[in-house]
Fold this sequence. Notes:
With 233 residues, this protein is mainly α. 77% of the residues lie in helices and 0% in strands. Pfam families: TetR_C_29, TetR_N.
Amino acid sequence: MRTKEKRAAEDTKQPPVRRRDKERTRREILEIAFAEFAENGLAGGNTDAIAARANVTKRLIFYYFNTKEELFTAVLEMAYAKMRIAEQDLHLEALEPEAAIRRLAEFTFDFDQANPEYVRLVTIENIHRGRHIRASKKLKEMTRPIVSQIAAVLDRGVGAGVIRPGIDPVELHMSLNALCFFSVANRHTFEAQFAADMSSQKARAQRRVEIADLLWRYVRNDQRAAKSAASKS
């Protein structure tokens, strides 16, 4: 039989505190903030809405990220990291130069098509003149692996005589991203102006092939190709 003192002690016991998984909570906030900023921009992004959807307090958001600007920067870092991590699995070094160039083009096109929120977020950061990326050392360092991969493919192709010399890997990366990015970022305005189909599965598949062809034609050694064709005639 419980004594009165024992019952009183048990009644005053607090329920066990459920500890948050800090990394999981932070990740959930970032995922929700990503959707919010991609839809409404930095100025229109609502931290109250982010807190409500993440089932946390706004104070906790600022505990992790200090300010709305820092949260936006962290979202950018997460978004770019997703693409950079995927790029590591391309294994371009295992492919012949032409196959590597085409694989790079197809991957970039597919990623942008599958992640329109990423495209919108990058567009929003451009509205802010890239100030968050410029201030993030992490974002700057993320670009090195893919540029190195492209440079290695170009070097191998030049050595094999199938790619023309003098191509800047950063310029090539820029040209490819411009082509793929446009297909998502400008899809609606281009369709409205020219009555062009850029959204159907057939149109996307055709554009994917065209971009890969364009990129390869740009880098290939036409003199080598011409000599090869002449020798076969």
